[in-house]
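Exam review. A common question shows you a sequence with its structure tokens and asks you to describe the fold in words. Practice with the pair below. Do the first one on your own.
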Amino acid sequence: MIRVLLPAHLRTLAQIKGEVQLDVIGAVTQRSVLDALEERYPMLCGTIRDHDTQQRRPFLRFFACEEDLSHESPDAPLPEAVVTAAEPLIVLGAVAGG
């Protein structure tokens, strides 16, 4: 089981309260977790990753174990604490302004 924390606007869109718990088969990577998330909550397709390129949306960041994983390869293994559900994968909405 993998734990995922989403920003409030995505939880509202998917009608989720609290964190999401997902079963991920195979290697636990950003890609496999997001694939499982979008399969379970199809309304999130295109909100975290671009439909065509599958690249992370500009104003979203990925964190785990107090590390910014946003620029890591989507196929890089996630930290062991995420794999064992000791820590969640956090999808965080960036704040921008001027």
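Now try the second one, then compare your answer with the model answer below.
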Amino acid sequence: MPEITLNAQLGRKIGSSDSRRLRAAGRIPGVLYGHGMDPIALSVEAKELRSALTTEAGLHQLLEIHADGQSYLAIARELQRHPVRGTVSHIDFVIVQRDEFINSDVTINIVGDAVEVRRNGGSVDQELFTLNVKAQPQNVPSFIDVDVSALTVGGAIRVADLVLPNGVEAAADGEIVVVASHASRVADAEAPAEA
């Protein structure tokens, strides 16, 4: 995926009052770190950051951060949000290289219809909502779809069963359950009475 350019200003003052002033001026305070470099305090334009992180790649978007004549390839590692408004109040960027492997948490989406489970009055429960994967920065997927169409009552889909894109591997134990199906509780309660 091509990187998006993000212009940053270095030398911001540290402290809550200075950070409030930056946010009031439409800038988001942040920090850039990684690869043995001392952390750099910076700020970015709020609108630029919002448009950079609302692409299909989301938080996994590769960013080319320009600051004081220097250029850094990075990704957003952590966003802090205002507890009421939900706006970004601080961001951490981590420096990456295209040829290195990084770990990232990727959202899991359930797709399809577990027809057999539904017909038998069962339920499908998602047990795992994000998966930690290992991949090169440009190969980290935005999300992972898990198709439950073939799921049967009492069945489960584990991490080892997931179909991941080329160049992406799960960093979690393969036996962890992602999705499980259960018989209906009414049917379970009636079973002893019939016996």
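Model answer, second protein: The chain has a mean pLDDT of 87. The radius of gyration is 22 Å. Full marks require stating both points clearly.
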